[in-house]
Amino acid sequence: MTPARPATLREVAEAAGVSPSTVSLVVNKKKDARISAETRRRVRDAIRDLGYRPNALAKTLVSGSSRFIGLVADAIATTPFAGQIIHGAQDEAWKHGYALLIANTEGNSDLEKDAITMMLEHKVRGILYSTWFHRVTEIPEALREADFVLVNCFAAEDGVRAVVPDEAQGGREATELLIRAGHRRIAFINATIPAPAKDGRLAGYRAALDDGGLAFDPALVLEAYPDQEGGYDAVPALLALGATAVYCYNDRMAAGLYDGLRERGVSVPGDLSVVGFDNQEVIAAHVRPPLSTVALPHDELGAAGIRLLLGLDSPEESIVKVECPPVERASVAATDAAFTTPPDAAR
């Protein structure tokens, strides 16, 4: 079937018995124009009857801005958290009358430059620039021509607006899940790869121990590659520590740990309580027992980026840290100490 030809502004004018300029004034809601209520009604009726849609690009060229916000990502649409930042940003943008223009560049600098240029040509309100994992990033030169906010990444230079997960707060939450359950010898398996998450999650672990009156023991901190194989390979060293609980850098590592513990007849949480990080639901909610973890707030990162871009939030610092909420499932068991420790002792 041949699609129907859209109605033109001139056809609306003819149907309403007015000039095209009068239709344009009504369409653009020029309230100060000297047009009678009856004429406005005839124009609106003709627009409805003909199914006329205003030319958004033409309006953009006249006004100098559009109702679009750009989102440029290096690989966000192909990660385990596919679409969560996009979903959060899109929902928040819709609330304020904007739609997203999305470009997934897969780290290709030429494609990235072309995507940003296209968005600038469409006169977007601003651009969110996001990376698939929390890290420091270089700001593309083309991006500096726009109003922009970094999401899930930050720049080395001062004053650049960014929204990132609060890794230290998340690490604290993960460790406190175990402290509140009465555990006193808690291991932490950190990543081998340098990243803000590695430093922040360790800092949170140490802060929670300090708040709980527990001494930090460097021997209880192991490192492994942050995937399932890394967690599996860390099991012998972990069991040699005599810990009653372990907090893992991420959920994939915890899943590998489950496999290694099961092979050795160590039960979770009966013999060892386990907490992950990320809340990668395809893993955390479906391993047995389901994994207690801390969520990376990808939806809120996207939403907060939109609010910051539109000036709806006015934080004191240029880098906004979004809390990582704990998600309690069945991988943590209470010890006798949980029933003898005052409720606020671990806070």
UniProtKB/TrEMBL annotation:
<dbReference type="GO" id="GO:0003677">
    <property type="term" value="F:DNA binding"/>
</dbReference>
<dbReference type="InterPro" id="IPR028082">
    <property type="entry name" value="Peripla_BP_I"/>
</dbReference>
<keyword id="KW-0678">Repressor</keyword>
<feature type="domain" description="HTH lacI-type">
    <location>
        <begin position="7"/>
        <end position="63"/>
    </location>
</feature>
<dbReference type="Pfam" id="PF00356">
    <property type="entry name" value="LacI"/>
</dbReference>
<protein>
    <submittedName>
        <fullName>LacI family DNA-binding transcriptional regulator</fullName>
    </submittedName>
</protein>
<dbReference type="Pfam" id="PF00532">
    <property type="entry name" value="Peripla_BP_1"/>
</dbReference>
<dbReference type="InterPro" id="IPR001761">
    <property type="entry name" value="Peripla_BP/Lac1_sug-bd_dom"/>
</dbReference>
<keyword id="KW-0805">Transcription regulation</keyword>
<keyword id="KW-0804">Transcription</keyword>
<dbReference type="InterPro" id="IPR010982">
    <property type="entry name" value="Lambda_DNA-bd_dom_sf"/>
</dbReference>
<dbReference type="InterPro" id="IPR000843">
    <property type="entry name" value="HTH_LacI"/>
</dbReference>
<keyword id="KW-0238">DNA-binding</keyword>
